[in-house]
Amino acid sequence: MDAFRLRDRIIQEYKHYVTSFIRIQNPRIARKVTDTINRGLQMKMSLDMLGLKNNTNA
């Protein structure tokens, strides 16, 4: 089992799950949300919800 491949698969499945609920009519806002999700902000929010800090200043 490749741990990195598993991690990538979990992230992709979670991204699909989260985006399946999003239906934004305004194209400008939809583009911003899509760009933010593609940059991985959803992962940071998930870590925050789990109580894990994503400290990049260390």
**Total domain count:** 1
Number of strands: 0
Uncertain runs with pLDDT below 50, 5 residues or more? Answer: none
Helices and strands, in N-to-C order?
HHH
What structural class should be given to the helix and strand makeup? mainly alpha
Q: In which range does the helix fraction lie?
A: 55-70%
Termini distance? 31 Å
The biggest beta sheet reads: none
Radius of gyration of CA atoms, rounded to a whole number: 14 Å
Fraction in beta strands: under 5%
The backbone outline, from C-alpha atoms, is globular
Sum up the structure in keywords.
single chain; 58 residues; mainly alpha; 3 helices; globular
Q: Can you describe what's shown?
A:
This protein is mostly helical and 58 residues long. It has one domain. The radius of gyration is 14 Å and the shape is globular. The model has no long low-confidence stretch (mean pLDDT 79).
Compose a concise summary of this entry.
The protein has 58 residues and is an all-alpha fold. It contains 3 helices and no strands. It has one domain (3-48).
What topology emerges from the helices and strands here?
Blueprint: H1 3-19, H2 27-39, H3 41-49
